[in-house]
Write a structure and sequence with these properties.
Largest sheet: 3 strands, antiparallel
Number of helices: 22
Distance between the termini: 25 Å
Oligomer: single chain
Structural class: mainly alpha
CATH topology of the largest domain: Fumarase C, Chain A, domain 2
Radius of gyration: 26 Å
Strand order of the largest sheet: 4-6-7
CATH architecture of the largest domain: Up-down Bundle
């Protein structure tokens, strides 16, 4: 069913809105009030120029060249030079969904009415989204100082018919794609080049998509932990609500509630409730505490990002209501960089504890099940190497744990003497979230195999639903086969949210 267009207006946009536009192709409309603000801001800039006043970025050079005044006749040439000189990115092109998120977020920032550009420039950004003209944006080159200058310059080049884009499945010159869609290249006027490239939209686009995926990973982790808990014949005593309410940590309380409902009434857990073992290993017993802490950091980071994606992040800013153009530093990427570096620990924690549960599932001395979950060990290695892969990814995470924003290298002849390195934080987070799905997928695959070795015992409603969902896509490892496809496929299955949806159908919403 087609969704109604998303209206960008006075209400703030959300991370979910960014996902709808970037991945779901949702169309966009603009409220009349925001259009009015943009036009008022532009009128003020044009009066400023006519009156012969000087303002940084309007009729001056940029960065450490801010003291150089630009004549009226050279202002348009200045905009083109700015985009060309700053399009200095290298590396593989960003994915089309990331570029779509950048286009959308840049339009939202400019629609706040503080950037002094023509409304037609914003319309062109939205045209490119709707017609799926996606600029080729190299992944490296931003230090997050005056925002993401290099990535945004590559994005903006397409508006003036320069650079390259992806269009209809091909990489082509921008001018060719614009012509095919009946669009004329824009001629940028005073301040518009700078307004297009000052801002944090590249790192924020990464952050929005990574956080959307991390939310799915957090919910999936509660499911895979329950699968392992039952397969390892653990106790549900550590899920008692009073225990978690005494800690007062909201993420922990939510995680424990999820897990309680997933295993509720499990005959397998009930069958050994009075056995000698009264406590489980930490990877089982402390799953709500670990998953919950990751969940709380995730929620905090979502708040930081949602404020940022509704913010004005270029420079200078135009305030017609006070009759001024104010130069400052809203483009600095610190809020995004710090948020993404902090939340990067969440997928690391998920991987650390999930890999330990996988290890326990495969160790016959702990699980009481056949070694590596194969009935014919020796001739077959079973799922032995799946844990190796989980261990490799979990170890690689250690090299990604260092915060990119801890570093700073001055740029622009020392004018930009403190930079955020936020793009590094953003790209790193995306890798960590991908690792989380891989590691959790391995746990799900191993736990499903272990649960079947406990049958015909019944399981909790959520665990039963999870097992059925896994087996609907992936067959048991009855004899040795190439596992790579299964591991990649399970990670994709979790990322799609299919595992969580199957469990929710059986036991209610799994809170993110």
């Amino acid at each position: 069913m087609l969704r109604e267009p998303l209206e960008v207006g006075l209400a703030p946009i959300t991370i979910a809105d960014v996902v709808d536009v970037s991945r779901g192709g949702r169309k966009i409309t603009v409220s009349g009030e925001l259009e009015g603000r943009v036009r008022d801001s532009r009128d003020f800039v044009e009066r400023w120029i006519r009156d012969g006043k000087v303002a940084y970025g309007v009729n001056t050079g940029f960065g450490s060249l801010a003291t150089v005044r630009i004549s009226h006749g050279e202002i348009e040439h200045l905009q083109v030079n700015l985009l060309r000189s700053h399009a200095a990115g290298v590396g593989e092109p960003l994915s089309e969904e990331l570029v779509r998120a950048m286009l959308f977020l840049r339009a939202v920032a400019l629609l706040q009415g503080c950037s002094g550009i023509r409304f037609s420039v914003i319309v062109r950004l939205l045209d490119m989204l709707e017609r799926r003209i996606h600029p080729v944006v190299p992944c490296q080159g931003s230090v997050g100082a005056s925002g993401d200058l290099a990535p945004l310059a590559h994005l903006a080049l397409a508006l003036i018919g320069e650079g390259e884009v992806f269009h209809q499945g091909c990489r082509v010159p921008s001018a060719e794609a614009l012509r095919a869609e009946g669009l004329e290249p824009l001629t940028l006027e005073a301040k518009e080049g700078l307004a297009l490239i000052n801002g944090t939209q590249a790192m924020a686009a990464h952050g929005c998509l990574a956080l959307a995926d991390l939310g799915v990973a957090l919910r999936s982790a509660d499911v895979t932990a329950c699968m392992s808990l039952e397969a390892l014949m653990g106790t549900d005593a550590s899920l008692h609500p009073m225990l978690h309410e005494a800690r007062r940590q909201q993420g922990q309380i939510a995680s424990a509630d999820n897990m309680r409902r997933i295993v509720a009434g499990s005959p397998l857990i009930s069958s050994h409730r009075d056995c000698d073992r009264v406590q489980d290993a930490y990877s089982l017993r402390c799953a709500p505490q670990v998953h919950g802490a990751a969940r709380d950091v995730y929620r905090w980071a979502c708040g930081m990002l949602e404020r940022e994606i509704n913010a004005v992040t270029d420079n200078p800013l135009v305030f017609p209501e006070i009759g001024g153009i104010v130069s400052g530093g809203n483009f600095h990427g610190a809020p995004v960089a710090l948020a993404l570096d902090c939340v990067a620990m969440a997928p690391i924690y998920l991987c650390n504890i999930s890999e330990r549960r996988t290890y326990r599932l495969l160790d016959r001395a702990v699980s009481g099940l056949p070694a590596f979950l194969t009935e014919r060990g020796g001739l077959h290695s079973g799922l032995m190497l799946a844990q190796y892969t989980a261990a490799a990814l979990t170890s690689e995470n250690k090299t990604l744990a260092w915060p990119a924003s801890a570093d700073t290298i001055p740029t622009s002849a020392g004018q930009e003497d403190h930079v955020s390195m936020g793009m590094g934080s953003a790209r790193k987070l995306m890798r960590l979230v991908e690792h989380a799905f891989q590691v959790l997928g391995i746990e799900a695959l191993c736990a499903a195999q272990a649960l079947e070795m406990r049958e015909p015992t019944a399981f909790g409603p959520g665990t039963q639903a999870a097992l059925k969902a896994i087996r609907g896509k992936f067959r048991p490892v009855d004899e040795d086969r190439v596992l790579s496809g299964d591991l990649q496929g399970t990670a994709h299955f979790l990322r799609s949210g299919a595992l969580v949806r199957a469990v929710e159908a059986a036991c209610g919403a799994i809170v993110g």
